[in-house]
């Protein structure tokens, strides 16, 4: 009989609870599983021994579906990075002590880069100390889609769908007036432009979508940007632009940082502006037409009501795969997605060594962006399109989606 | 045989095209209707004679449904306010000349305050000049819900649903970390707090929703605001706040304006910040905890994918009512909604003199807000709840909702 612990870490997404649901699904259906615990607030909850009995909270398939459709991390999250394995063993000793105290054999940790670092270190620690009664497995998650070792990341597809749908709607909104106007929409992503690229999905039904898409990978030139905008304004009234939060100049300096250094407002408050806001000010100054900036902010990562059915299904499958690996004693692996083909869209679920994943970052390859650095290519579209297919049947009550609250 | 012209004006909404669909539905089903035109960009399109033949664009019920579910103004919009009736007749003469040239007998104008001013002036002009072959009728629309003469406005219910759903999702997202953090969300509304009040709908299924809701009607005190936030941070980690774009101090000065006067950033750009951004800076300075501001921006008015089925149905009914009034020669009226009861929710459609509506503004009554000025009352909830009921079955293709493009 094995006992299972699952926890979530890093930024929340619309799909991360589906991965918990996948873990619980396998655990509930296995004769060899005893306790099914969730740790509250990630690895912090392991250190604090704040466990939630998931057999009590999740009774039936209805509960599993509701959990899968609830956005953000239902078990809570943390941003705690474990210390260096060779320098500070106390933290690892404490974790193993807690796991043994509660007779946990399988620990599934769901998260992004930092969380896979935790899986890597903890599984290494167990190997190094011949701890064979504990298996640590990772399940990927990040809206940024920047994990290596997997074709794409759970949570990304739903965020991409939100972004594609929102750009399609913004295009309609911005086109109603006969007035020259520029709308700059900032999308999450400091170092990887995947989410910003998803703005291109507004085009899949023949719409124009954003006129320009600037990812954070190529160096961003404000001069070229103003030239681009002017050129487009010559032939049309409304110009809609997608930019990454993390656009940087040639020196690698964030565009948003350049304005913030030392700037204060009339009250003496520090001026902290996003990249879209900085470019809004620039367009106002250099072109002088109507201009607005929009940040998609938290909504892009927690909009469960417009989640991608493909993403939710894949996220659940990865939780199932991770739980199976843990039950089979595959210490130190991460469940991952291997794409077999784009159209028809076929994937396989596999397990990769987490050491290959942790602390790496997958940015957008050059052939996914155009040469001018102001749009994506067909190759990017082919990659993105399958990930947003299908809509989730949310369970609405009183006009608002029902949610599963675990604590 | 009568010919019909319909046009849209003011800010777009997720429901304004449903009203056009309502007009066209009645027109298509009437034996006495010949041409069905749409004017591009509102009354400007009448002056410019840029007409769209809607019989060509809308062939069947499928087209009507698609139009109803497409956000923003499919006929385009304008912000043109007609001149004073007694001072400048040329504009009115031109409009009547164009309408007569195209043998238009019924003109339905869909919009908010300014648009109803157009309906009022134009219908008055016709009456004053014994023009009996042209009937001008208004249909209400505004996400702000600030029109008098109708229980509520088409477009508001869908925006309210987006806001309620989004706050429910943000609540989940903001609650994942064990860190003191304040999230301030700015909702549209310069002088009427209806949309901000809709944040309370996040509570209908037992959720906590926003911790505070500050509408723009009562005077806003930054001192009291900081006190409120501190009090809540004493007992919980995450504090979620809804504020109106138009919160003002005791002197009636916009909170956002106070910071903007004379402020420049390091590049010498003018500092233009929304009210949430101003309060974010204030919390950072006075409390020093993690704080972020979010603007729901254009998304709240164009999110057709999460439109309220009740709103879309009512918007269509009002278009039908307006078209019927126009066909029956009821010059100078606006189609409107009379609420008979909250639960069960029952409404009637009627016609009110547009002169009572134009240039008036319906703000939130005192008994819809709590005495402290930091939340809404049950009375507000009872008013809001029926308006967000039901979800629209969007027609998705390739993962993105299909849209009806009229030009």
UniProtKB/TrEMBL annotation, chains A, B:
Superkingdom field: Bacteria
Residues the record marks as site: Important for catalytic activity and substrate specificity: 114
Cofactor: Mg(2+)
Residue ranges occupied by any Phosphofructokinase domain in the UniProt entry: 3-325
Binding-site positions, Mg(2+): 113
Pathway in which this enzyme or protein is active: Carbohydrate degradation; glycolysis; D-glyceraldehyde 3-phosphate and glycerone phosphate from D-glucose: step 3/4
Localization per Swiss-Prot or TrEMBL: Cytoplasm
Residues flagged as site, Important for catalytic activity: 141
Keywords recorded for this protein, A-Z: Cytoplasm, Glycolysis, Kinase, Magnesium, Metal-binding, Transferase
Binding site for substrate: 142-144, 188-190, 245
Pfam families: PFK
Main localisation: cytoplasm
PANTHER family in alphabetical order: ATP-DEPENDENT 6-PHOSPHOFRUCTOKINASE 1
Subunit structure: Homodimer.
Biological role stated in the UniProt entry: Catalyzes the phosphorylation of D-fructose 6-phosphate, the first committing step of glycolysis. Uses inorganic phosphate (PPi) as phosphoryl donor instead of ATP like common ATP-dependent phosphofructokinases (ATP-PFKs), which renders the reaction reversible, and can thus function both in glycolysis and gluconeogenesis. Consistently, PPi-PFK can replace the enzymes of both the forward (ATP-PFK) and reverse (fructose-bisphosphatase (FBPase)) reactions.
Family affiliation: Belongs to the phosphofructokinase type A (PFKA) family. PPi-dependent PFK group II subfamily. Clade 'B2' sub-subfamily.
Protein name in UniProt: Pyrophosphate--fructose 6-phosphate 1-phosphotransferase
């Amino acid at each position: 009989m094995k006992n299972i612990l699952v926890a979530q870490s890093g930024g929340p997404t619309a799909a991360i609870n589906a991965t918990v649901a996948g873990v619980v699904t396998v655990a509930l259906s296995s004769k060899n599983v005893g306790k099914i615990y969730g740790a509250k607030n990630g690895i912090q909850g392991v250190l604090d021994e704040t466990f939630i009995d998931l057999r009590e909270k999740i009774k039936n398939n209805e509960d599993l579906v509701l959990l899968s459709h609830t956005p953000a991390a239902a078990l809570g999250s943390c941003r705690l990075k474990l210390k260096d394995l060779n320098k500070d063993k106390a933290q690892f000793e404490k974790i193993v002590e807690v796991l043994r105290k509660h007779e946990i054999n399988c620990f599934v940790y769901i998260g992004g880069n930092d969380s896979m670092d935790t899986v890597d270190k903890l599984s290494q620690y167990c190997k190094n100390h011949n701890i064979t009664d504990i298996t640590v497995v990772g399940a990927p998650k990040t809206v940024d889609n920047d994990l290596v070792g997997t074709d794409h990341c759970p949570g990304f597809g739903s965020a991409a769908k939100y972004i594609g749908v929102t750009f399609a709607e913004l295009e309609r909104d911005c086109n109603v007036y006969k007035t020259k106007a520029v709308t700059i929409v900032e999308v999450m992503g400091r170092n990887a432009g995947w989410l910003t690229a998803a703005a291109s999905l507004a085009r899949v039904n023949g719409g124009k979508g954003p006129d320009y898409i600037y990812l954070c990978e190529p160096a961003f030139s404000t001069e070229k940007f103003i030239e681009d905008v002017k050129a487009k304004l010559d032939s049309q009234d409304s110009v809609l632009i997608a930019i990454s939060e993390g656009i940087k100049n040639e020196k690698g300096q964030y565009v948003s940082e350049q304005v913030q250094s030392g700037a204060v407002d009339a009250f003496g408050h520090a001026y902290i502006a996003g990249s879209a806001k900085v470019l809004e000010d620039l367009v106002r100054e250099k072109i002088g037409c109507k201009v607005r900036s929009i940040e998609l902010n938290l909504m892009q990562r927690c909009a469960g009501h417009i989640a991608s059915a493909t993403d939710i299904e894949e996220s659940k499958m990865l939780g199932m795969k991770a739980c199976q690996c843990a039950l089979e004693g595959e210490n130190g692996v991460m469940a991952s997605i291997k794409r077999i083909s784009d159209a028809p869209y076929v994937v396989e679920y596999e397990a990769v060594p987490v050491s290959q994943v942790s602390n790496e970052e997958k940015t957008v390859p050059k052939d996914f962006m155009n040469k001018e650095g102001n749009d994506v290519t067909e190759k990017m579209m082919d990659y993105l399109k399958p990930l947003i297919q299908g809509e989730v049947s949310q369970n609405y009550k009183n006009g608002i989606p029902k949610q599963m609250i675990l604590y």
